[in-house]
Amino acid sequence: MSEEQDDIEQPEEPQTLPLDAWHRAAGGRMVPFAGYHMPVQYEGIMAEHLWTRESAGLFDVSHMGQVLLTGEDVAGALEKLLPGDLHGLKAGRMRYSLLLAEDGGILDDLMVTRLPSAEAFGGEGGNSEPNGGEAFYIVVNGAVKYDDIGFMREHLPDEVTINHLEDHALLALQGPAAGEALAEILSGTDQLYFMQAAAFDWDGVPLWISRSGYTGEDGFEISLPASEAERFASALTALDQVKPVGLGARDSLRLEAGLPLYGHDLTPETTPMAGDLGFALSKRRREEGGFHGAERVLGEHRDGPATKRVGIRVEGRQPVREGAEVVDADGTVVGHVTSGGHAPTLGTPIAMAMVPAALAEPETRIIIRQRGKDFTGTVAKMPFVPQRYRRPSKGS
């Protein structure tokens, strides 16, 4: 595959985000995360979490990898690595999918969008292939983005060109007031529904905006030139509805929404079915296969996986944390907690865990051992907090 960015090695020292100085000026407490200095909180995790559920929080997710793929039959090439139906994806539509290793293990979870052309990013990415070519925009997790790009370079054909959009920032505006707030500074965004995206112009600045996010709330993700990120973030936070929100609340929000975090709830040892992500296997792909690990993945789709990611409501007030052991009645370790913490919206501790399929049914009692102490939990359906995405009304 042709590659416009030759150096894809992960830098050893934490890097700074385009908004680093802006975060510090806003009172952000910076911590190392995914190879970057990032704000974990500003006013406090609890307050920021509840503000996002009630109004609108602005998250800097510029550490994520933004990748532009162009060329002939990009959909066909990507379908060998992802189990989603990309041929059937319309321009301006996006889909959650999984980057799969040859054995069907999950290398990353990601969002993939079909673009009308690479010019949606102001012509970035070189050849937009106007004569029958295709353009796809993919957002991958920050901690593994260099690995993802290397994997795609190894497995995609030379006819596909990849461009890592390192000169772009990515912001997420999330919460029930997100639509109203964004519309105050940018017209037309209220026309988007969940999992739709389009190009916009803000005071001469090209933006690519999707109605999506990772909190369970209505909201948007905005890709824009890094040089304009501070001005745009300041315009948003000048609105009464919007406050900056850090990593701490981002984690508690996605946990309440039942959304997995790669490297914790999902790893290369996790298959799509074990990760409770069977919805990412599009119908046509289930019928045709043709993607990495298809035999194993489709076999588990048919017969069920040996283990499964589940949600757990934990009794008492003390949270259980990642790494705590799930044990059976005899005290034998049979699983482990992958994420856990206090759910501010619910006022109770919740968790996700990998458990044997026999323990994965809702209302199953679970024993969790943490630092020699046993906790009792109950398998619960996810999301823990109802999702509030903006979808078209029926019949519209």
Question: What report would you give on this structure?
Answer:
The radius of gyration is 21 Å and the shape is globular. Helix 2 crosses helix 7. The N terminus is likely disordered. The protein is 19% helix and 33% strand. The strands form four sheets. Strands 1-10-6-9-8-7 form a six-stranded mixed β-sheet. A six-stranded mixed β-sheet has the order 12-13-14-11-5-15. A six-stranded antiparallel β-barrel has the order 16-19-18-17-20-21. The chain has 396 residues and is α+β, with helices and mostly antiparallel strands.
How is this fold's topology laid out?
Elements: E1 2-3, E2 15-16, H1 20-25, E3 29-33, E4 36-41, H2 45-54, E5 56-60, E6 65-71, H3 74-78, E7 94-100, E8 106-115, E9 134-140, H4 145-155, E10 160-164, E11 168-174, H5 178-185, E12 197-202, E13 205-210, E14 219-225, H6 229-237, E15 242-244, H7 247-256, H8 283-288, H9 294-303, E16 307-314, E17 325-327, E18 333-343, E19 348-356, E20 365-370, E21 373-380
Parallel strand pairs: 1-10, 2-4, 5-15
Antiparallel strand pairs: 3-4, 5-11, 6-9, 6-10, 7-8, 8-9, 11-14, 12-13, 13-14, 16-19, 16-21, 17-18, 17-20, 18-19, 20-21
How many beta-strand runs?
21
Q: Supply the CATH architecture of the domain at 10-60 and 167-256.
A: 2-Layer Sandwich
Report the structural category: alpha+beta
Note the run of SSEs as H and E.
EEHEEHEEHEEEHEEHEEEHEHHHEEEEEE
* Biggest pleated sheet: 6 strands, mixed
Biggest sheet, spatial arrangement of strands: 1-10-6-9-8-7
Please mark out the parts with pLDDT under 50 across 5 or more consecutive residues, or reply none: 1-8, 123-131
Radius of gyration: 21 Å
State the CATH class of the domain at 10-60 and 167-256: Alpha Beta
Number of helices: 9
CATH topology of the domain at 10-60 and 167-256: Gyrase A, domain 2
Return the average pLDDT rounded to an integer: 94
Overall geometric form: globular
